[in-house]
Design brief:
Length: about 280
Amino acid sequence: MHVASRFRRLFFGTARLLPAFAVIVVGLQGCATKPPADDPDAVADYEQTNDPLEPTNRVFYAVNNGLDTVILKPAALAYRFVVPGAVRDGVHHVLSNIGSPVQLVNDMLEGKPRRAGDTTMRFLINTTVGVFGIFDVATKWGYPDHDADFGMTLAVWGVPEGPFLFLPVLGPTDPRDAAGFGVNIALDPFTWIGTGPNHPGWTAFTWSRFGLNAVDARERVLDPIDQIKKTALDPYATFRSLYRQHRRAQIQDLRNDNRETVPVWFPQPAATPAN
């Protein structure tokens, strides 16, 4: 999986306070000043970057980087040291399998019945033959995994991405994906099942899942992120570029996936990525 996607997923499952953070960001005045009209090259660069809140975004990037240095990276290193690779892969597969309901809903909202069929078969096969998702048997049987979330759904519906944002905890995003993040939480059945003080065990499971998602995602990008931070002249700009490139590639692959709708049990080749 692409570095930007994993980096983004690191923050994707670690907090539920995004709406409040989004309000804070919008209300802040730390905006980048648009170049004068008599400097067309600078104006073009400003518009292409599409990061009017860059000063504020860089502050939040620094905050996230500090949290990563103190908490997430050490936890990921410890996880890699203590847990064997095969077990880490199994944990990753289980976490992915648990997210299938949200993926399925978005497949349907995106108008992609073939993808919805793949998601359904992946969940059924991996939950049973794959022992609750520990083993990704479905991929070997012709049902490949794919990305699907409400931010992508909004993109298919024609909602523009808006300016770049770097939010606390969530990381690189934009208004469309930030809204999608909140909707994905609402779509997740685990958000609503067993909530409240009478279900302490389920609450513990929910937060353990978020913690495992964060540690799993961070462990899987330990080396690439370290390399970027060591070699990039401006890591913030590099992550911004990686996020946008990967996000647009995901959406383009979704739009290009026009496989025929056939019975759900009949696998088809994965969509060919656009050149």
